[in-house]
């Protein structure tokens, strides 16, 4: 029978850091313990800790800031077309101004929403509908259902100052996502919110995400096809 050898010390440190990040104990943007603290905690050499953090940095879980420490990266979820990002950050990265208008922010017992989120029929979900604009021109209607067990303070947020994506990244980091993109004619209320002409199509992204092995959120994002495109590289 083969003898099982313990994992190398640097691998145990890597596993510990990953578990802290994935559990949400160390959220995106937080500074992790220093190399000195990890040396004391694990009783290993500075070189061993340095190797573990260097490899986690190469894996893009961490990033180092000279003189400030080592920080947890925001998790990115990429496909051949998109990654999950805050629309406010996308707009600001273009040097433009993001604004938003909250249309709906409520608790709901909608049966379809509960089923999509994997919740019991006797449970409830949170629902928001927000219009996002770039330099004053609306480019997205975000219709979102949220698992209240993962994001219990969702209804308390000011989503005209903070996007739902920003809040959820802080509260419970996402693990994975699935999505589909279609071209659809919007209903009258969506068309009006996006200031579209009758007959113009929308690009519609429907996405579900998971955190802590539960469905976290289901969102439908409506974009005016004449003023919006998805882009990416792979």
From TrEMBL:
One of its GO terms (biological process) is negative regulation of DNA-templated transcription. The lineage of its organism: Bacteria, Pseudomonadati, Pseudomonadota, Betaproteobacteria, Neisseriales. The keyword Nucleotidyltransferase does not apply. SMART domains: HTH_GNTR, UTRA. This is Histidine utilization repressor. Residues 7-75 form the HTH gntR-type domain. It comes from Silvimonas terrae. GO terms for molecular function: DNA binding; DNA-binding transcription factor activity. Keywords: DNA-binding, Transcription, Transcription regulation. It comes from the Bacteria. PROSITE patterns: HTH_GNTR.
């Amino acid at each position: 029978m083969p003898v099982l050898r313990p994992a190398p010390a640097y691998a145990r440190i890597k596993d510990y850091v990953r578990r802290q990040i994935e559990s949400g104990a160390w959220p995106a943007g937080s500074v992790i313990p220093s190399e000195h603290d990890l040396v004391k905690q694990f009783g290993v050499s500075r070189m061993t800790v340095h190797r573990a953090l260097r490899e986690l940095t190469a894996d893009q879980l961490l990033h180092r800031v000279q003189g400030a420490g080592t920080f947890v990266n925001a998790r990115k979820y990429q496909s051949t077309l998109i990654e999950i990002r805050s629309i406010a950050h996308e707009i600001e990265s273009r040097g433009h101004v993001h604004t938003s208008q909250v249309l709906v922010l409520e608790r709901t017992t909608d049966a379809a929403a509960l089923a999509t989120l994997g919740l019991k029929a006797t449970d409830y979900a949170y629902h928001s509908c927000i219009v996002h604009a770039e330099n004053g021109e609306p480019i997205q209607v975000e219709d979102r259902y949220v698992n209240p067990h993962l994001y219990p303070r969702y209804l308390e947020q000011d989503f005209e100052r903070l996007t739902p994506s920003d809040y959820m990244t802080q509260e419970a980091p996402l693990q994975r996502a699935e999505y589909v993109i279609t071209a659809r004619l919007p209903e009258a209320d969506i068309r009006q919110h996006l200031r579209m002409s009758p007959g113009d199509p929308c690009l519609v992204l429907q996405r579900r995400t998971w955190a802590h092995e539960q469905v976290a959120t289901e969102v439908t994002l409506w974009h005016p096809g004449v003023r919006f495109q998805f882009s990416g590289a792979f």
